[in-house]
User: Fold these one by one.
Assistant:
Number 1:
Amino acid sequence: MVYRGRPSTGCKKCRERKIKCDEHPGGCVKCGERGFTCPGYDRNVDAFFHDETANVEAKAKKSKAKAIAARNQRDAMEMVKTQEPPMLHLIAPLVDQGVNYFLTHFSSGIDQPPVTSRIYHQHLATNGFHPLVATTMTALGIAGVGNLYMDSQLKREATRWYLKAIRMANAAISSPEEVRNDTTLVAVNLLSMFEATFNDKSLAGWSNHVDGASLLVKLRGMSQFSTPAGRRMYLHTIGLLTMNCMGQCLPMPEYVRELNAELTQYLNIEDPRNAFFFLHIKTADLRAQIINQPSIDLENIVESALELDRIALFIFDGTNEDWCYDVVPCPGRIRGVFGDSYHVYPTHGTAQTWNWVRYNRIYFHDIIRNSILAGLATSPPILAFFQNFQKDSMPLADVFVENGSVQDRLPIVRISGGYSTLWALYVAGSMPTASPASQDFVLDCFGRIERDFGVNQAKVLATALRRKREMINGGETAFDICPQYLPPDDGPSVPFQGTDSKVGVLGPEVLMDATIQAGFPSIKLVQPTR
């Protein structure tokens, strides 16, 4: 029923004549004046409503007929579609793309144990990923996809997932139980990888997450060594912390030495990976000691560097063929290969460890070289240790090992999304003795890692290397026994640095004079300020 408003209370005759009725009892006056019989006044409440039942029923039947016709048309279309081949969904959901990218780029090459082995399936988790780990994996994967496609919308989505992972990580760290869980440490390490993937401006975010992960390791204490997973996560986290300390010219924290003393009970020290772990820490400590010591003892510095170089030289002695690689000659220039040969490794872990050992030896040789130059610049020159260096030092190129046929192997090693080779490449390219051709090769590798893996940290280090190259060629770098490999703090690329080395600011006697400098044209010096 439809409400029609307040009806007139006059008689029917007056309503038809559209005049005002006086509603006189017994009959209105106006009907009497005209000689009409007044029909009276309608006081029924039905006058307030109008019956629309018939109209509504007609509309319903019409609407139902339209719906039936539309349904019949849809059914006919469905019958036609069933005779066509099924359509493929080429675009997966965004979350699936992110997780797939993560597993493809950051889990490839993990070949121990093989997926076909009993041990792999015995220890494989079947209850899915922890929500915190899954969120960080998704953020990291979407960031990589966004970098590869240079899609600003995907980058915003990666940032949203990253902030969600940060909130979840903060909640886990605030919990007395979850703060010591393996999943919390894994998530923080993945957050540092996100910064390396996503941040194309600086290393500060990566450095902060590495420091946070190292504090979690400290909090976990000795109990983390009770499981193989705990030991592996400790080795991974402290390895990142070592690189961070080297970049900031800081010694390793004291708690690392205490934890390492306990860790040695669980490790095979003869394994080259474990041997390098401890060598890397000694390298960072030596570098920090040289930079922060109040006085310079050149002979002691050279002896310490030679001792560590000998350890590095014999790390692979007595190992099996899994640690050998093939040297493949390549006459003519081949893109992606520097020089006239390349190496083929049996596993990604072998290539990774070899490269790590090599860049540590580059550190040692740079320290020894700079110490010799500083000794030659003193009055009188300090030359007594030079003969020992010639006898004890061994060129990097002499450590090559031959190992059978290489017909069915590839020269390219993909290692954990490209992260493992970044710092080694940068160290090789930032040396004062690096040739322009080798620096160009390193920059080309950084560009390839950025394009193929979506790792923006390669872009940061490439910018830093270009700046470092300009500083060396422009004579803006002072001579140091342990030089800063990264540009200064006020540079556009890398914001974190430690204190500058004290070598080179003690006086002119530590610097090379013009005569000696002419014999070493690869290094340029400026007069230090007091």
Note: Confidence is low (pLDDT under 50) at residues 82-90, 396-418, 490-530.
Number 2:
Amino acid sequence: MGSDAAIAVVSASALAIGILVISLTTGMTTDVDNYMFGSVLAMTETDVLLSAAVSAAVLVLFVLFYHKLFAITFDENFARATGMRVELYNTLLSILTALTIVLGMRMMGAMLISSLVIFPALTAMRLFQSFRGVVLCAGVTAVLCFCAGLTISFMKSTPVGATVVAADLILFLLACAVQRLRKKN
């Protein structure tokens, strides 16, 4: 099984098991719609503060370990040969990714969270060649599309998560067009 298939199997399974466990727990009700599609508008003040704190922690850890994370993502074997503790930094990268996904699930839901992570990175990779350029562009793209999706959602009374994904898709398609134009010239 390829890594993409493995990710799909694990995420679908984890989602199903999580919903089942919660639904079988006495005294708890489930709202499958919230699990699947999230609701940024239903976030409490505590949720927002927790999200801000965890986001800040992720950014600080990323900045502190930027060069190490770059080394293991660019050439893991070379990083290992230079004596870098690759497993430690792979674990850190996994933790940062997991925290980002957990934060996004409350807002976007399990079905749309992958777009929150994947679309900005894919868009940035169409526009920039350097690791730093991709990382910065992906961050800006994520914030821009989230704000655009939220604004359009308010104006048109559409679901926030789906509208954010639509904004991501539009920007991705524009980046693909820019990439094609660059290749022609």
Note: Residues 19 and 25 are 10 Å apart (CA to CA).
